[in-house]
Design a protein that fits this description.
Elements (H helix, E strand, L loop, with lengths): L4 E2 L6 H25 L6 H24 L3 E2 L5 E2 L1 H25 L3 H24 L1 E2 L2 E5 L1 H24 L3 H24 L1 E5 L11 H10 L1 H14 L1 H5 L46
Antiparallel strand pairs: 1-2, 3-4, 5-6
Helix pairs in contact: 1-2, 1-5, 1-6, 1-8, 2-3, 2-4, 2-6, 2-7, 2-8, 3-4, 4-5, 4-6, 5-6
Keywords: Membrane, Transmembrane, Transmembrane helix
Protein name: MHYT domain-containing protein
Pfam family, one: MHYT
Length: 288
């Protein structure tokens, strides 16, 4: 039996809340990624890992906040706990791979394309893995073209976000990029939901899984608490809020001497000290 799918069960409340979660995770992740570019290699993995976890947690929270408004007529929905939290691990891991590529190779060329592709595929994988964790008395089918469009949107959003993170143009630049990223990620979610078709078998209650209301508590306690902690780190670090330093950190490179003070002194050829002329005796013998 074909049934009707509702994606806005609470009106605009769930889409707006989901968008804010995506923007929050994106803003924190982009600032951490930008901060990683300004530090030495010993500190870079920590900032990149924090940025990966922030973006992954924000996108995962966005997905399930939006799913609170997703209802299907004639059948209740339950969620598999293991599959649901596995989608969080996939999001953080694949977003982290893309961010580490850009963090070490730069936000341009092949590195940007590779990092954006992997990050976008991670976002899409999180979405459809979370959908696979749904239990209901029926079967879900997807429109292939619409699914492909949602994946392309995720890849484009991830690439644009990583490019913006590599620009390091200050806090307002990252906020604007996060707003665009949140809009693209939320748009990817609802595009993917538009591809869903449900064929209900009956009205029986699924035997396994938790209800959407039961999943709300761990979402608020877990990822949102982490996002709050990451926000505190951003606020307490003036370099992340105000922008980059005046000079890039000095890193050791083979064959290039390091300068501890970050400056390089040059001498003009015309200002070289003149050596006194010394009259040397000729080496060839002279007849006296």
């Amino acid at each position: 039996m074909h049934t009707t799918v509702h994606g806005f069960g609470y009106g605009l409340v769930t889409p707006l809340a989901a968008y804010l979660m995506a923007c929050l995770g994106g803003a924190l992740g982009l600032r951490c990624t930008a901060r990683a570019v300004l530090v030495t290699r010993s500190w870079r993995p920590g900032w990149l890992a924090l940025g990966s976890a922030a973006i992954g947690s924000g996108i995962w929270t966005m997905h399930f906040v939006a799913m609170m408004g997703f209802t299907i007529e004639h059948t209740p929905i339950r969620y598999d706990w293991l599959m649901t939290f596995a989608s969080l691990a996939v999001a953080v891991l694949m977003v982290g791979v893309g961010i580490f590529i850009v963090g070490y190779r730069g936000a341009s060329g092949t590195a940007l394309f590779t990092g954006g592709t992997i990050t976008g595929l991670g976002i899409a994988s999180m979405h459809y893995l979370g959908m696979a964790g749904m239990h209901l008395d029926g079967q879900l089918t997807y429109n292939t073209f619409t699914v492909a469009v949602s994946v392309v949107i995720a890849m484009a959003a991830a690439t644009a976000a990583l490019w913006a993170a590599g620009q390091v143009r200050g806090f307002l630049w990252s906020v604007g990029a996060a707003l665009i990223m949140g809009l693209a990620v939320t748009g990817m979610h609802y595009t993917g939901m538009a591809a869903v078709e449900v064929h209900v078998s009956g009205t029986a209650e699924p035997s396994t899984g938790g209800s959407p209301a039961e999943l709300l508590a761990p979402m608020l306690i877990g990822p949102l608490a982490f996002l709050l902690l990451a926000g505190v780190v951003v606020v307490l670090d003036p370099l992340m809020v105000m922008g980059g330093p005046t000079a890039a950190p000095v890193e050791w490179k083979p064959g290039i001497p390091a300068h501890t003070d970050g400056t390089r002194t040059t001498r003009h050829p015309a200002r070289r000290a003149r050596r006194p002329l010394v009259h040397r005796r000729p080496r060839t013998p002279q007849n006296r």
